[in-house]
Transposase IS200-like domain-containing protein
Amino acid sequence: MEFYHVLNRGVDKRTIFNTSADHARFVHDLYVFNDTKPAPDAYRRIMWDLRSPTSDTRKKLVDIHGWCLMGNHYHLLISERREGGITKFIRKLNIGYSKYYNDIHMRSGTLFHGRTKKILIERDAHFLHILHYIHLNPLDFLAGAEKWRMSGVKDTERALAHLKEYRWSSFKDYCGEKNFPSVIEKDFFEEAYGGVARKSFAYIDEMDLSAIGELVE
């Protein structure tokens, strides 16, 4: 099984998630577009309750193991379920969300900056850091912790509390809260990490800044 860190940002670093409704729509799209079937019409889609789906008849293109939405970009950690699945999924996701965003915010033109970046997780060190790194991104919004990539985190408990409160990532689901459980596949990384949430405190407290530096290059 191969894992990929997938990320893209708004053109000219523009904000692509302006409101909670924008965030919710993108998470909804993570679910709906992860299917071999053609994407539903953007204006006729039903916003399903992703916390308690009644049934799941999708033939998934990918497994989403982790995700995080920031103001002007997103991160995904995914693996392919069928040949060409990642390319098809990302195309549907970016096009679908762009159509929604442009309509709601009364704009036109390209929303995302060029081709989506897709990084194969090849080294053990990268594998051991990547999901934690994705989940730590919301520290950018925590006063006093914005430079965590360069100087680490001084107050681990405060940082962890902030991450647990941030709704727009898979971390809450890994902490046992049903945030958007139908979007992600947790089992592999729960087993591989020996409990993602349980290991997060030690990861933040003993942060390897050199490893973080490699992830953001």
Notes: The first strand starts at residue 3 and ends at 9.
